[in-house]
Amino acid sequence: MKAIRAFRSVVRFDVPQWNPTERRLSRAANIDDLRRIAQRRLPGGIFDYYDGAALDEVTLYRNSASFNDIEYRPRVLRDVSNIDLSTSLFGHQMAMPVMLSPTGFGRIAHSQGELAVARASRDAGLDYCLSTLATRSIEEIGSVDGLNKWFQVYTWRDRDMVKDMVLRAQRAGYAGLQLTVDTPVFGRRERDVRRGFTLPPKIGPGTIVDGILHPSWTLDFLRNDPITFAVVAERKDLNGETAVTLADYINSQFDPALSWDDVAWLRDIWNGALVLKGVQSVDDALLAIDAGVDGIMVSNHGGRQLDGSPPIIELIEPISQAVNGRITVICDGGVRRGGDVFKALALGADAVSIGRAYLYGLGAAGERGVTMALNMIRNELAMTMALVGVTRVSDINRDMVQWRPTR
Fold it and tell me: Which of the residues are catalytic?
């Protein structure tokens, strides 16, 4: 009996988890784990669309890896019993200094697509930006009560269509507009080229085999409505009913003549916050101030445009110093951990914006996966603040980090 009691004191049997979603997520400890789960669940071409970048993907790698060149300077014996992650961005209170970037074609990862992301963002108390290339409409996301919504826009050749989208966002209660400025032409994303990737995905022998190998994604795809480019669904030439290569689609619509005059045009027709997404130099940050916009997202499009552009975290400090508080600075690129958020804030960013980090959650388990990704970043940021010795986001400063001496 003594041996049995000893055995029972150290052995606990796991209760079987019958929910397949929870079973998938039960061993996920961080964003990289969600990435691996998404890679197993999604067909190869779809995972590569989200995961891949331009050319040799050097900038994609360096966007995240460069955060490792920054070290903390922790202080001890501080009272860190009450950590406050909240902040204010463009006059709106957020639960933490993280917003969700616009990403296209959400429903190819999960049938709920952008709706799942919007709901998880709302529940987390964070701002969410809908992409022009979304698979849920402006009005659908606008109906998510309690969500502070942004809309991302490209200046396509058809300015009347752009104006119509902007005014629809305004009527639907969107608080801010993000103008993407780093895409006069489409970057060459070679994973998509090798896969022959189209939107919506074409059905062929390879697709069928891939579907069989990824049954949960396939059942989710087949049980729901066809995927369309919902924001522009009324345009029959753009609605996504016919499969097209992404590069052909983008290059047929984007206007390489995009200039600062277009920023002024948008400022005239939009009465909310206006942010430029894709600024990568001090000179352009200063021009953005002159243009009268409210903020800039320091971003290289997740490495998906110009391979060889600088890692975003290396741009934050010089840009923040140059603008000197005259404009809001958002770090958009490479964030995978709450500690990355801390480092960006310490170097001068007002907030960060994440894309792939939540897309991996969406691909892994829909809304539940997005919520898990956001919770991971939240918990890691709180832990980092406590271990560095600071209790409020507003108190994070440059003295709390340093570039590694080998730099």
Answer: 301
